[in-house]
What we know:
Elements: E1 3-7, H1 11-23, E2 27-31, H2 34-38, H3 42-45, E3 48-52, H4 60-67, E4 73-77, H5 82-90, E5 95-98, H6 103-115
Parallel strand pairs: 1-2, 1-3, 3-4, 4-5
Amino acid sequence: MQVVCVIDDETSVHKAIANLLRSAGYQSVGFESGENFLASPWRARSACVLLDLQMRGLQGLEVLRVLNGERPVICMSAHANEQQIAETLALGAAQFLAKPFSAEQLLQAIALSLADRP
């Protein structure tokens, strides 16, 4: 079972995404901060990462820079503008999702990101 790590400082987001991912055959592990994810053994075990850009503490763009393409990262935000979206993609994000997004959009982004993985 592929592991998708969800990094978002809103617990309700973790729970909603975790339920969806389980029903689609993925294992979901949630983190409330980028720091917690980066220090976790799940970092090495994840097939894909869902990353909120705007969080308390270490911001999503900084996490993306640290990951530096080691696995597919799907960035998400409710408040991103075109410049921020372009920056995430330039930094190596596989996909960008604007919140709120549908279950279909999320699952499609994950499938595409995993299919593009070498």
